[in-house]
Amino acid sequence: KVEGTDNIPRDGGVLVVANHPSFLEPPSLVCIMIYFADRDVSIMAWHKLFSIPVVSFFTKTYKAYPVNRENPGRGPYQTLLHILKNGGCAGVFPEGSRSEQRLMGNWKPGALRAAFATKATILPITFVTAGEFWPRSQWRPRFFKKHHIRIHEPISYEQYTAGMPEGMREKEWQEVVAERIRAIINQPIIDRLDEAERKLEEAGRKTDPLEPEIENPIAEQNDRREEALGRLSA
Q1: What is the helix, strand, coil percentage profile of the chain, to 5?
Q2: In sequence order, what are the residues at sequence separation of 6 or more whose Cβ sits closer than 8 angstroms to the Cβ of residue 88?
């Protein structure tokens, strides 16, 4: 289930920012961009993936470029700048690796620096149920689980730079914008967790014999029977 496909910009430099709870996000992101917007997307990927048989083939196929997490250097950043400056689409998972919890965690420093430098549009995407479909602790996905993806409204350069206080360093403002985008990405997950909690509470009330407001089908049936007998006797 993919929501918000009309929000994908069809041209211009776009930095896609998404959470990363499982192995599904990179191929899912590539498929979404190609199928719904006819756009290629290049993703910054762990450099060791390029030396694993079979995996390296698919990694290179979806135009990923390597980054060494321990010593990234300037190469990956320069590649990202080149893509955005030339009107391309690039995807980043700013946590740096797969999430260790349901919600998106802290970002690596400078995640939005390339967007500011190139005036690219930022497109937040939430992989709402990927962590349930393929938990980090499991080597294979849980089949027959729904894979839900939410594509949020794009944020233009004018929008994410608006409101920057006079005298504030751009690096500090990038952290403010990053926190706002992270909140946008996390909100659908929070909503899902709240809904699951509400359903559990409702289920608990229905099975609680001391709950005064629960619907009791036996009592309702008895009330209807008494009402019918009363009409007959009248």
Answers
A1: 45, 15, 40
A2: 13, 14, 40, 42
Which tokens go with 231? 């009409």
Number of other CB atoms surrounding residue 74 within 10 Å: 8
Which tokens belong to 215?
Answer: 């619907």
Q: What is the pLDDT of residues 98-149, one digit of tens each?
A: 887 888 988 887 789 999 999 999 999 999 988 777 777 777 777 777 889 9
Convert 142-166 into a string of H (helix), E (strand) and C (coil): CCCCCCCEEECCCECHHHHHCCCCC
Instruction: Give the DSSP per-residue string, 90-109.
Output: EEE-TTSS--SSSS--PPPT
Cβ atoms within 10 Å, residue 25: 22
Question: Which residues, 6+ apart, have CB-to-CB distance to 148 below 8 Å?
Answer: 1, 3, 127, 128, 129
